[in-house]
Amino acid sequence: MRNDAERARSRSRLMYVVLALLASALLALVVLSTSDSSTPPKTPSDGISMRSAGTERGSPIVLSPSGMRFRVRLLDAQGHAVQGAVVTFSAGDIRTASTERGKARTAAVITPPGFFAVCPQGNPTPLECRMVTDREGYATSSVFTPTATNGVFTVTATAVVDGHQVRFVFTVELPDAANPPAPTTTTLPTRRATTATTLPATPATRVTPATPTTTSPTPPPPTLPPGTFTISGDITVPLLPGGSYPIDLVVTNPRNSAITIAAGGVSISIATGQTGCAAATNFVITHGLLDPITIPAGSTRSLSQLGVPIDRWPVLSMIETNTNQDACRGAVIVLTYSGTATG
């Protein structure tokens, strides 16, 4: 009987030990499960900001008929530049309420405001442009050329950095083509340019008629005195390093007959009066006038009025030197034009 009782007590103690071990294992599983479920998920990085170069958020921009570029800068929470981020510039449509018999209708007229030129990172649509930020954190769009004559639209710059999306919205105004805005002198930097030009004679050419017995020289165009016509052209948008800006030349012909300027017939020189902002180092004429133009007698015509495509206009570029170019802030860029014409 004693042995049976001792064996029963041993079995009871063994059972208690097993139950205690099972309870400890269960408690460990519960603690481990609770610890795993309380771990916060990984969140995207915060503190990335996007700013505009020279434009306050919400301030409207008047878009020049010759087009303009948009520029933003990405900075982290410590104010350091974010390099290599893809920025998408996207232009919204112009929306205006349509009318019928003086009453507004619910439907809206949607008008695309223009298009972006080709961008290195692609153009998903004509209204979009993808660029990559440089080592200073800047991303500059290609030239946006307007096709509408008036209205208001937005251009939104968007970037995603480590899952964190940031954006900057530009509000853009297209002035009425019949009442264009006066040139501004507050744009950074401001450019001015006017000059008189000369018109040398064109050498005579000989025409061989059908009968071989006679030849008749074609009379040369008349020799025109210096200062017969004038050329001017301003850029009213901010110049940014790495940017290129078409110049809508304006030619005045006071003569009583038309004159023609050949392709390449306009020369442009650049000067600045700003210390530390040398013209040769910071600016260049990428190319001159690429198409011939004819100005009617007694008239003034711009390249846009003559129907010359914008990619055939002369182009002024600000060179990206990859150095500090703050010395050019506020500089006055003087463009001097000279050229020849026949007529």
Q: Care to describe what's here?
A:
The chain has helices at residues 2-37, 279-282; strands spanning 49-52, 60-62, 71-75, 86-91, 94-100, 103-111, 114-116, 128-132, 138-140, 144-146, 151-161, 164-174, 190-192, 194-199, 205-207, 216-218, 224-232, 244-246, 250-253, 259-261, 266-272, 283-287, 293-295, 299-302, 315-318, 332-339. The chain is mainly β and 343 residues long. It has two domains: 44-180, Immunoglobulin-like; 182-343, no CATH class. Strands 2-12-11-4-8 form a five-stranded mixed β-sheet, with no helix packed on it. A hairpin with a 2-residue loop joins strand 5 (94-100) and strand 6. The model is unreliable at 26-45 and 180-216 (pLDDT under 50).
Helix content: 10-25%
How many separate domains make up the residues? 2
Give helix and strand order, one letter per element, not per position: HEEEEEEEEEEEEEEEEEEEEEHEEEEE
Measured distance between first and last alpha carbons: 139 Å
Give a quick account of the main beta sheet: strands, pairing sense, barrel closure. 5 strands, mixed
User: How many distinct helices?
Assistant: 2
Concise synopsis of the structure shown:
The protein has 343 residues and is mostly beta strands.
Layout: helices, strands, pairs:
Elements: H1 2-37, E1 49-52, E2 60-62, E3 71-75, E4 86-91, E5 94-100, E6 103-111, E7 114-116, E8 128-132, E9 138-140, E10 144-146, E11 151-161, E12 164-174, E13 190-192, E14 194-199, E15 205-207, E16 216-218, E17 224-232, E18 244-246, E19 250-253, E20 259-261, E21 266-272, H2 279-282, E22 283-287, E23 293-295, E24 299-302, E25 315-318, E26 332-339
Parallel strand pairs: 2-12, 13-26
Antiparallel strand pairs: 1-3, 3-9, 4-8, 4-11, 5-6, 7-10, 11-12, 14-17, 15-16, 17-19, 18-25, 19-24, 20-23, 21-26, 22-25
